[in-house]
Specification:
The complex is a heterodimer.
Chain A lengths: L8 H16 L3 H23 L3 H15 L7 H23 L22 H17 L4 H13 L3 H8 L3 H21 L11
Helix pairs in contact in A: 1-2, 2-3, 2-4, 2-5, 2-6, 3-4, 4-7, 6-7, 6-8, 7-8
Chain B lengths: L1 H5 L4 H8 L10 H11 L11 H14 L22 H19 L6 H4 L11 H12 L3 H5 L13 H4 L3 H15 L11 H4 L3 H8 L5 H13 L15 H5 L35 H5 L13
Helix pairs in contact in B: 7-13, 10-13, 12-13
Chain lengths: 200, 298
C-alpha cells in the first residue's frame, strides 16, 4: 500500500511529536533525528523550486530552523509545516535575488542526501531518478508543482500544504489534482522515465 | 488528452496518490512510480549532508536561549516567529522608540523615524539617524513570511511598525555584519550568503533594493555602532556619537574592509528577545488532522 513511507501515520506523528519535544528541550540527538527525517523532503521540495541550488536553500532554511527551534511552539505536524515554510521562503528569496530559472536537475543535483558510505551504483540510479522525477514535477505550473510536492513528497496534508502556500485547502486540492492529471498525461506521452524504484 | 478517457484520474485517486497510497486501479502505476521516485528512498539513519552545520546552529541556539533571561520563550528576533507581539510589548517598545528618537533627533530632528521611512536610495543624506532607526526594522520583513502561516506577505518593503522592536536589534546587528561581509553592501562577491549570516538578497530587501544597500548599511552603522556597546560588534568604527546627531552618516560604513565575523554574537544576544510567546502563532495552527504520513519518526 504505502510507497516509501515506512511509518504509519500514527507512528510518525507520535514519534515526531516526541522527538520534537526533546529537541526543543535541547537534545541534540533529537535534533539530528528531526533533521534526518525532514531534510530529504524539504531538499526535494526546494529542488523543485530552485533546482540545483536546493542544497544551499535547504541549508539556509535549517540554520533558521535550528536557531528558532527552542522557541518553536507547536506539534510535529506544525513543525513540518514550519520547516517547509521556511524552506519555501528561502527559495523564493532565491528567486528574487537571481531570477527564476527553469529547474534543471537531471545532471546537477543528485540528491546526495544519503550517507556517503552507502554509495552503490543502484543508489546513484536512484538519486538520478529522484532528480528526474522532481524535474518533471517542476515542469508543471508552479502552483501545481508546489501542491504536488508538498502533498506527495514533503508529506503534508492538505491543510498544512494550504497553510504553507497561503491558499485555501480547496485551491490546493485542485492544484494538486490538476498537476497529477498533467503528469499522468505527460507520462503517457513519454516512455516511462523513472518508473521509480519505490522506496521500500 | 486522450489519456483521460483511457484512464480517468478522479479526485479520489488523486488524493490517494498524494497520500502515498496506491489506488486500486493499476492504471496509475506510472504516477505512483513517479511520485515514489520524487520522494526518493527512505533515508538511512546516518549523517546527511548539512547535518553538522545545522547541528552547530542548533547548539548555538540552545546555548544562548536559556541565557536569554528576559524572555526565554521569545523567538529568535530575526526569525520567522517574531511577528507575534503582544500589545503590551508594542507599547513598551513604542515608548522606547519614542525616547530613542527624541535622543537621536536631538539635532536635525528629521523625524522620519516616526514614519518608518526606510533609508532612501542615495541615502547618504537621509540615512541619518531617524532612518537608521526605522529602516532596519523593516528588514526582517521577509521573515514573517516564514511563519507557518507562511505567506510572503510583506515582501520587500520595510514595515515601520515592526521596526520598533528591540528584537530587531539583533537582526540589524546581523545585517550590519553582513554589510561588512559584502563590503559595505556593494560587493556581494565575497562571502557566501550563509557565511555572512544574512543573504545578500535579504539585505537588499531590507534596504529596499540592491542600490540602496550602501545607504542602508550606513544607517546601520549610524544606528548600531554609535549606540549601546559597539564593542561587541566586530567592525564598528570607533563610537562616534556625533554621527547620530548629524543628518548624514557616511553612507559608506568605514569599515568596509573589515572582516566580518561570520556569525555575530549578535544573534544570540538575549536582551533582544521579545517576551511575548510569538512562535506559536503559526506553528500551532498547523493543521494536524491526519498526520500526513511521513517517514519521519523513526
Amino acid at each position: 500500500m504505502r510507497e516509501g513511507r515506512p511509518l504509519t501515520p500514527d507512528q510518525t506523528r507520535d514519534a515526531l511529536d516526541d522527538v520534537l519535544a526533546r529537541a526543543r528541550a535541547g537534545d541534540e540527538a533529537a535534533f539530528v533525528r528531526l533533521y534526518r527525517a525532514l531534510h530529504p523532503r524539504v531538499l526535494r521540495y526546494a529542488a523543485s523550486l530552485v533546482g540545483a541550488d536546493a542544497e544551499d536553500v535547504a541549508a539556509e532554511a535549517w540554520l533558521h530552523v535550528a536557531r528558532d527551534l527552542p522557541s518553536f511552539r507547536g506539534d510535529g505536524d506544525g513543525f513540518r509545516a514550519w520547516v517547509t515554510t521556511i524552506t519555501r521562503n528561502r527559495a523564493l528569496d532565491h528567486h528574487r535575488s537571481r531570477g527564476r530559472r527553469p529547474v534543471v536537475l537531471d545532471d546537477v543535483l543528485t540528491f546526495t542526501d544519503r550517507p556517503s558510505g552507502d554509495d552503490t551504483a543502484a543508489d546513484a540510479v536512484e538519486r538520478l531518478s529522484t532528480a528526474r522525477a522532481i524535474a518533471l514535477v517542476a515542469t508543471l505550473p508552479r502552483e501545481q508543482a508546489e501542491a504536488v510536492m508538498l502533498r506527495a513528497v514533503v508529506g503534508l496534508d492538505v491543510a498544512a500544504a494550504a497553510q504553507v502556500l497561503g491558499k485555501q485547502p480547496g485551491a490546493v486540492r485542485v492544484a494538486a489534482h490538476r498537476g497529477l492529471k498533467r503528469l499522468a498525461a505527460e507520462l503517457s506521452r513519454r516512455a516511462d522515465p523513472s518508473r521509480g524504484r519505490a522506496a521500500l | 488528452m486522450s489519456i483521460f478517457s483511457r484512464r480517468r484520474l478522479g479526485r479520489r485517486q488523486s488524493e490517494q496518490l498524494l497520500d502515498g497510497v496506491r489506488p486500486a486501479s493499476p492504471a496509475f502505476d506510472d504516477l505512483v512510480g513517479l511520485l515514489a521516485a520524487a520522494r526518493g528512498p527512505q533515508p538511512a539513519d546516518a549523517e546527511l549532508p548539512g547535518e553538522q552545520a545545522a547541528l552547530a546552529a542548533f547548539r548555538r541556539a540552545v546555548s544562548t536561549a536559556p541565557a536569554a533571561g528576559v524572555a526565554p520563550a521569545g523567538p529568535h528576533p530575526l526569525e520567522e516567529n517574531s511577528p507575534v507581539r503582544t500589545l503590551a510589548l508594542r507599547r513598551l517598545l513604542a515608548v522606547k522608540v519614542l525616547a530613542a528618537s527624541v535622543l537621536t533627533v536631538g539635532l536635525g530632528g528629521v523625524a522620519m523615524a516616526a514614519t518608518g521611512m526606510p533609508l532612501v536610495p542615495g541615502g547618504d543624506h537621509h540615512a541619518a539617524t531617524p532612518a537608521a532607526h526605522a529602516s532596519p526594522a523593516g528588514s526582517p520583513s521577509d521573515r514573517p513570511g516564514t511563519t507557518p502561516s507562511g505567506r510572503e506577505t510583506r515582501s520587500g518593503t520595510p514595515s515601520a511598525t515592526r521596526t520598533r522592536s528591540t528584537a530587531h536589534r539583533a537582526t540589524h546587528e546581523k545585517q550590519l555584519v553582513a554589510c561588512w561581509a559584502y563590503g559595505a553592501g556593494r560587493s556581494k562577491a565575497t562571502p557566501s550568503p550563509v557565511k555572512a549570516g544574512v543573504p545578500f538578497a535579504d539585505l537588499a530587501r531590507a534596504a529596499g533594493g540592491k542600490d540602496r544597500v550602501a545607504a542602508y548599511c550606513a544607517a546601520l552603522v549610524a544606528e548600531l555602532c554609535t549606540k549601546a556597546d559597539p564593542g561587541h560588534l566586530p567592525g564598528c568604527p570607533k563610537a562616534d556619537p556625533t554621527r547620530r546627531a548629524q543628518g548624514s552618516p557616511s553612507d559608506r560604513p568605514t569599515r568596509s574592509g573589515t572582516k566580518p565575523a561570520t556569525r555575530p554574537a549578535a544573534s544570540g544576544s538575549p536582551t533582544d528577545r521579545p517576551t511575548a510567546r510569538p512562535s506559536r502563532s503559526a506553528p500551532d495552527r498547523s493543521p494536524t488532522q491526519h498526520p500526513s504520513q511521513t517517514r519521519t519518526g523513526r
